[in-house]
Amino acid sequence: MKRSELAQYIDHTLLKPEATAADVEWLVEEAVDLGVYSVCVSPSRLPVYTPGNLRVATVCGFPSGAHHSNIKAAEASLAVSTGADEVDMVINLAFAMEHEFEAVESEIRAVRDAIPNRVLKVILETAALSDFQIVQCCIAAERAGADFVKTSTGFHPAGGATVRAVEIMHDTVGGFLGIKASGGIRDTETALAMIEAGATRLGCSASAAVLDGL
What CATH fold (topology level) applies to the domain 3-212? Predict the structure, then answer.
């Protein structure tokens, strides 16, 4: 894979709570230099000016996912109104762990309905879930009309993306939904392994290091 091809998988991410306006400006400059697909920033940092085809992603219900679905929907709607092209929402992990998959689907649909014309990615926090729970959450996301399922926030103590989780997601909804691997992808080898497993997008804060291997 060429460096430029790998770059187009990447959402260049800055979600540290202490990130300043100057940090976001630098993120955009670096993103342009690297040729990545998008930048992903906290919703309070919107709007973000991006030149050319560089897209803007943000998050909702982040990072815990324990927000009420109405709050997630309102946050997503506000983000879109202030310039977000894509929204990465965190599911309620308790619903998934209690096998309340209809509740997972319902809250995803609430956000989907709030942003019908934008890309919606659903963060499952796969490191905290069983294989069965990952499968069922992927099915719920597909039924609710999401565009992607995503492994992780990068903030959960259970960990980030794994090849195994991406393979499960791909086996469940690959070809129907995009699959975003995120959390702990810090080098080229890991990034390529995620793509080989079925990832169609990568969330990276260490994008330069990921691309340096090519």
Answer: TIM Barrel (3.20.20)
